[in-house]
Write a structure and sequence with these properties.
single chain, 9 strands, binds ligand FSX, binds FE3-S4 cluster, five-stranded parallel β-sheet, alpha/beta, binds iron/sulfur cluster
Length: 314
């Protein structure tokens, strides 16, 4: 109780009311596909955490947009909430340590918490020329082989880590692959795709794990069904225009101003699985199609090769 009181006091000091926090928990619970009866238990995961699992966050071949998405564009205080329920022991972007000290943190975290830590991997792995990507003189593939099998659970975040992403685009000279494929661990790693991915889907996966003691159910590509069970097209607010043959053919046109369907200017929503229409980005502000931009299929494998040329009808 005392812990919970302190938590709400800390939130208050950041200008976040209990009401805002409960609103967030309601949104998160719904995104996770749980009934509203779970809202108080989801709130408790943050307010009175029973455990604070160690997290080792690896950066491989990527642009760091995934970390940026988590740390900057969500509710301004979500990063702090995540830091309250997790002990992030290694994260190259946000840790203060550098050089040998950083390396030491990584080894200590893995050794001390073997079989218990959560590994989050951002970025893909070059397998043809492993030396294309290195940290501290070590190839990405060796870092991943050393850390990932020792984690209690591994989450690949972003399309690079899940399916290879932009680094793996044709002609892919380095032979980049997603983490599960590079390590031969398909089906054993949770894939949260998207370039960038939506942070709420990472938070939902972790809260699911802390609340229910297990990872969420996955689709055949290793993605949580709560987020990737439907296509963009299934939940698109422009869908009625699609059904009525009302299409945007030119950007900036009257049809575009009327919010017509973006299929003819290249929308890949019908073949892209993700919850962008419901979860939205930037504090639930908007998402590509709402902003008038077609979905480019950024959460599907090989999207850079199979969904291009962008802006052209399928
Ligand atoms: Fe990839 Fe993450 Fe795209 Fe970037 O780091 S999923 S390039 S948005 O951000 O890995
Ligand atoms: Fe489907 Fe895209 Fe049209 Fe939305 S804008 S209805 S996702 S084709
Ligand atoms: Fe990506 Fe399409 Fe969503 S481009 S961010 S999956 S709308």
């Amino acid at each position: 109780m005392e812990k919970e009181k302190e938590f709400y006091e800390r939130l208050n000091a950041k200008g976040v009311s209990r009401r805002d926090f409960m609103k967030y928990c309601t949104f998160l619970t719904a995104t996770m596909g749980l009934s509203s009866s779970f809202v108080p238990r989801v709130a408790e995961v943050f307010a009175a955490p029973k455990q604070r699992p160690s997290v080792v966050w690896l950066h491989l071949g990527e642009c760091t947009g995934c970390s940026e998405a988590l740390l900057r564009s969500m509710y301004p205080w979500i990063d702090e909430l995540v830091l309250e329920i997790l002990s992030v022991d290694y994260h190259e972007t946000i840790m203060t340590a550098s050089g040998h000290q950083a390396e030491e943190n990584l080894h200590n975290a893995v050794k001390k918490n073997e079989g218990k830590f959560i590994c989050v991997v951002e970025g893909s792995i070059p397998v043809k020329f492993p030396g294309y990507g290195r940290v501290a003189g070590k190839d990405f593939i060796d870092i991943a082989k050393e850390v990932v099998p020792k984690a209690a659970a591994t989450i690949s975040i972003g399309t690079c880590a899940t399916f290879g992403g932009i680094p793996a685009a044709e002609p892919n000279p380095g032979g980049y692959k997603g983490v599960a494929e590079a390590l031969g661990m398909e089906g054993k790693i949770v894939n949260i795709s998207g370039c960038p991915p939506n942070p709420i889907n990472l938070v939902g996966t972790i809260v699911n794990y802390l609340l229910l003691g297990k990872l969420p159910a996955l689709d055949d590509k290793g993605r949580p069904l709560f987020a990737f069970g439907k296509t963009i097209h299934d939940s698109c607010p422009r869908r009625s225009h699609f059904e009525n043959d009302e299409f945007v053919e030119v950007f900036g046109s009257e049809e575009a101003a009327l919010g017509y369907c973006l299929y003819k200017v290249g929308c890949r929503g019908p073949e892209t699985y993700n919850n962008c229409a419901v979860a939205k980005f930037n504090d639930g502000t908007s998402w590509p199609v709402e902003a008038g931009h077609p979905c480019i299929g950024c959460s599907e494998p090989s999207f850079w090769d199979t969904m291009t040329p962008f802006y052209e009808e399928l």
